[in-house]
## 1
Amino acid sequence: MRTLDSLIWSAAPVDGADMVVVCEDPTGDLLSAALETGKQVVFVDPDYRRAQAALAAGASIAGDTRLDEFLAGSSGTVVAIGEMPKSLARLDYLARSIAGAGFSEVTMALGANNKHLSRSMNTVMGESFVDVAASLGRGKFRCLVASGPKEVAYEPVRGEGLVAVGGVFSGAKPDFGGELLRSALPGSLGRFLDMGCGNGSVSRFLKGDVTCTDSDADAVLSTRAIGLECTWDDAGSRLIPASFDTIALNPPFHDGTTVDATLVQHLLDASRRLLAPGGSLYLVHNSHLRYRGEVERRFARVEQVARDARYTVLRAS
């Protein structure tokens, strides 16, 4: 177990809890430790692959059900543990959903590198809990530990025809790259797939046969909240091959706080698998990132169809 996970585990009074809720767990070590206690374990990390691994290991998962609805009517004592989410909106979603679920006692212990912790995190947790304090540090890591749940409820953020559940990228606003991508789409889409849909901003207002997919549960819930069909899976793994005439892709390029241009590879492979013969992929990317070579390795014809000061849209077939 890495130092951060060990600190989080030691900061949480797991022994006295009826249930352990594992929030953000990129290594899987907190999940393993929780399962070893024999207690009821609920895994609420929004990542599809991590959630499926947790389900296979014996945990319950919130999956693509809103967390406040999944936990509503709970009782007994609970300890929630995990890595501190990067997004304050995701932190608020976790805190309000768990504090407001109905447990008699709640302790939440979330940890991170000291340089990634901020007073605004204390403030957000303080809206859902009576007591919020920092743990003793261990190396360069520390936890924020909250207890004493308040009577709170979670309400998604709404705006500009969008709904933001949890930490969905761009919140309830369209992002600039996605807007350029949407403007570059053809008038006739045929069977259309929004791959890695985020909050659904690219597909909002589109007519016809529209499907969305994302591996992040918050994104799926946000997209469904504006009336779009959306699957929660790994790069469209539940969709039928060669079944879409047009695919739009606005891929992530950050792994945590680090730029990682390789994140697009898995999505490009999936796009090639899901495109019907004669179909086209429309991809937007930050112009300084070298995505075109990755696209050309998978598609015979690639051309630039839109560009502004920050973003480029490619069409591939």
## 2
Amino acid sequence: MLASLQRWINDMTAQSSAAEPPSLALATAALLCEVMRADYRLEPAELEALREELRQRFGLEEEALSELMELAQQETEASVDHHRFVRLIRDECDPESRIELVRAMWALAYADGHKDALEEHRIRRLAELLHVSHADFVRTRHEEQQRAAGESS
């Protein structure tokens, strides 16, 4: 039994090291999907907000955009953790870009009309991992909350 467990661990390690590193677009989309999934509800407004954010951020055509969203959702459902995505964004993006990503996370959290405590917790954790300051975390939350309130008025 121990031998079969060791073989399984070796197979999993070989598969994960053989996989090519994710692109910046996939890493971004996967972290945004993490926020959408945090409250265990996938709302159409959140999917549309994700689609628009990725379209604006990466300038993708509709087919490529759909593929990216599908792949990101598959990655977040299959991944044990999201550290490889966080690490890529932390290494490749400047502080302002990481703050803008946190702002996009808040926009997704408010896309369905309300922010869930689970979404806030997930964004807080991701912001910490992305080395976004608490002040920027709070400021982007407040700005997106105000924007969402203005749209619903």
## 3
Amino acid sequence: MDSNTEVLHAWHAGTSGWDALVDRYSRLVWSVPRSFRLAHADAADVYQCTWLCLAEHLSRIQRPEHLGTWLVRTATRHSITVLRTRGREVAYDLWEPESTLPAPDEVAITNDRQRRLWSALMTLNERCQRLLRIAAHSPELSYAQVAAALGIKVGSVGSTRSRCLAELRRKVEGLR
């Protein structure tokens, strides 16, 4: 069969027209999604959709000599649709989900550190405990505000804090 018209008439008659069309235009249709650099699976989808559209509209083809152009345009539209859709998709790997939870060993280490810190803190005198709690939970407070809260002189806040931290450090290291 030489012309598209003959191929279309053969298809309408129920003979091998479809196979002849696919053989004739297969490489052309396949080249369109590949020219858009679609992944193999997406290009295969576009290829199949293009042939499906032709099967659905084959009886309405009025100018068989322009069938190649029609196939290229259809494949182009499908390729652009795939690109738009893929641009809105969020990749999600079902095999290796990204975990926001810490690893079990990290949890164990953190829990141990916290336990040792709190145990050591509880052995400090009342004034050091209060000062270090204020420093940890309200770092934005000025020395004047901390001094007022603890009932000590402003000039002694820094040196007292340093002594309390050094004592806490020794006690934490002693709990190892």
